[in-house]
Structure formats: C-alpha cells, structure tokens
Specification:
With about 130 residues, this protein is mainly alpha-helical. The chain contains seven helices and no strands. It is globular, with a radius of gyration of 14 Å.
Length: about 130
C-alpha cells in the first residue's frame, strides 16, 4: 500500500487535474474528498492540498498506476463535461505514469460505451492486462 506521502501526491495530482479549467466544481470536490477518505487521508489534510501541493510522484506499482488512472477517468467525467484539453492532459498523465499508450487510448475510446462514461473496473483491468501480455 502507498505511504501517506504517496497518497497525498495522488490526491494532489487529481486536484490539479480537476482544476485544469481553473474551477473546482462542487461535484469534483466531493468526489475528491471521497477518494481522500477511501485512502485514509483526513479532511484537514485534503483541504490543505487545495492550497499547497506536494511534488507529484508516480505510484510505485503498476496496479496503483492503473487505479490512479481509473480515478482520473472518473474525475474527468464526474461533471458530465469533457474538454479536449482534459482528454489530452489525462492521456499525458497516463504516459507520465508509464502506462501503455495503446491501453490509455482504448480506455478513452470505450468509456463512451458506458453510462456516465464510467468504465467498469473489470473492463479497465482487461484492457491493461491485454496490453501487458
């Protein structure tokens, strides 16, 4: 499992992504807060991240990278809007984490086949597993 510092880094990355359009919508805030809670990060520590962001670190394991990418996809679609800049940034973040470009592209394509563009975790894992074999 990730260290507290790594968890803060993942949340910071997500906050940065959510604020791409210079606005953090209430739906995005609550989604991020729920992720923080699931990671065991207190609300006060989470709220501090909105002001002061630690250096982004790549999640250590491939599984953590895939989960973080999935969180970013969910975050992008939480407000029901997608902007080309968000899709481009998400793609670049996946590359930065070392995920296969073809798997990233496939996830971004198939998400349109699901309600609210929420790719089920099992589908996401199948995509990444196929690209690692």
């Amino acid at each position: 499992m990730s260290t507290h510092e790594e968890k803060l880094s993942m949340l910071s990355q997500m906050i940065s992504f959510a604020q791409e359009d210079n606005v953090l919508k209430l739906s995005e805030y609550y989604f991020l807060l729920s992720v923080a809670s699931s990671l065991g990060v207190e609300k006060d520590a989470f709220d501090r991240l909105l002001q002061d962001r630690p250096e982004n670190k790549i999640p250590q394991t491939q599984a953590e990278r895939i989960v973080q990418f999935h969180r970013l996809v969910l975050l992008m679609n939480i407000d029901g809007e997608q902007h080309p800049s968000e899709i481009g940034k998400l793609h670049n973040m996946g590359l930065w984490m070392g995920l296969p470009p073809s798997a990233i592209g496939q996830v971004l394509e198939v998400m349109h086949q699901y309600p609210n563009k929420v790719v089920p975790p099992d589908v996401l894992l199948k995509i990444f597993t196929a690209h690692y074999n």
